[in-house]
Design goal:
The chain contains six helices and ten strands, in the order H-E-E-E-H-E-H-H-E-E-H-E-E-E-E-H. By secondary structure, it is an alpha/beta fold. Zinc ion (ZN) binds next to loops.
Length: 266
Amino acid sequence: MHGRLSEGGRPSLRELLSPLYTQALHSHCLRADAVSVWESDGETLWLPRFRFQRTPVVKERHKVGIFAGIHGDEPAGILGLMDFIRELDETPEIGRHFELFLYPVCNPGGTLSGTRASRSGKDLNREFWRGSQEKEVQLLEREILARQFDGIIALHSDDTAPGFYGFARGDVLARQLLSPALSAAEQAQPRDVRPFIDGFKAVNGMIHESYDGILCAPPQQIPQPFELILESPALAPLADQRNAFRLALKAILHEYCPFIAYGTNL
Ligand SMILES: [Zn+2]
């Protein structure tokens, strides 16, 4: 989708994120910072990071990273994740078992230009764990290595898709989470039920393969986290896409804990 974040001119990163920065200022459970800040073509760019934890109490929490805007021309994921973060802060109960690391703009240069690629012309989602020279990829790889996430979720949009769909990578847990996520998204958007999506075999909107070089856990991480990629239909109304992302993310948090509890009780 060759879309931009707004019709009337491009917002700066700060304008785009200012509702969340304001919210974080007054929040007990949401903190805002940046993975890194740098200069590009005379412009200040940064990779924004938000961290959610309902209370300061030290206890076992599931650590999940959610990434959007890896392709700069896919605004729905960015806005959907921002909606989700706002809802988390307003209803922290939905995230009570989690420590969430939220990265709404993973390709800040591309997002500001409205291009899929980074400022240097690379598709960042083909560069991971391959010795990439891309700044954003190096920063995100370092972040992913340091956090050792239990789950990784990436948000994308597909301008050839008639409906919402997803990829589940890794063990059975990913599949068990994707199904309720797609069901929840259906409250906002139809599901893509084609037997082949983006060249991959799909069943009921679920795909179990993926491209190489996508944002994911390092191959050597043990245990591997659950990994989900959610794809909205980029040509559908933006409001429906962001709503579908928000509902899908909530469903994943809701479903994750019973699965974990069941697993440990076996
Ligand atoms: Zn994408």
